[in-house]
Amino acid sequence: MTEGLVQIAAEVEAFLASLEPGSARVTLRPMTRHDEAEFVALTRASQELHHPWMSLPGTAEEFRTYLTHFDPATTRRLLVCLRDSGDIAGMVNINSIIRGRFQNGSLGYAAFAPTAGHGYMGEGLALVVRYAFEQLRLHRLDAQIQPDNHASLKLIQRLGFHYEGSSQGLLFIDGAWRDHERWALLNPSPWPAHPSLPNP
Q1: Alpha-carbon span 30 to 26, nearest angstrom
Q2: Which helix or strand (DSSP H or E) is residue 128 part of?
Q3: Which of 41, 80, 99, 120 is the most exposed place for a label (fewest CB within 10 A)?
Q4: Residues near 98 by Cβ (< 8 Å), separated by ≥ 6?
């Protein structure tokens, strides 16, 4: 593991240790190079589920390139895993983390077909939201979702995100610039931010 990943792993572990013991079916961990084979196989098995909403690494080479674009200062790449088996059920990225006066992160997420439809992704995403607010101390999370991606819209609404508007041609996906709805959620217990502090 790189120094950045070691730090994030410790950060995630500290967050999970702070939770009340319960019957949670999923847990979180950072994505690493050791996840290559399982992640690529899951991506291939989930092409129909993901198309045309997103494109994830479908080859070993694409996965390695995907990992090289990781910056621990501005990104968290987390896997939602089944607590009992450790199998990967989904992934959640917190992208474009900006500190200072903004204290914002942007969510991207996907379930994988073999375990989709059992509520694991909802549980995992709820954990990531708590992690972002309680451990990273972000003030705000946002998510950009294509208007026809009804499953994703229902999921984000269940977590309390509110609709902020629509942006034309926001992201280049599946060979074209796609319109997206913008949804956001504020930290219910915001931490004071200071523009000179990158991480309060």
Answers
A1: 14
A2: helix 120-130
A3: 41
A4: 74, 104, 105
Residues 137, 198 contacting (CB under 8 angstroms) = no
Listed in sequence order, the residues at least 6 apart from 3 whose beta carbon sits closer than 8 Å to its beta carbon are none
pLDDT digits (tens, 9 = 90+) for 18-62: 988 777 899 999 999 999 999 999 999 998 888 888 888 999 999
Look at residue 156 and tell me whether its pLDDT is greater than 90: yes
Nearest to 93 by CA among 122, 70, 119, 59: 70
Provide the residue count of the chain. Answer: 200
- Higher-pLDDT residue of 5, 76: 76
Strands (E), the chain: 26-30, 76-82, 88-98, 104-111, 140-145, 162-173, 176-186
- pTM score over 0.85: yes
Side-chain-side CA neighbours of 147 within 13 Å: the count stands at: 8
CATH number of 3-140, picked from 3.30.420.40, 3.30.390.10, 3.40.630.30, 1.10.10.10: 3.40.630.30
Record the tokens describing residue 99, joined without a space.
């500190």
d(CA 103, CA 109): 20
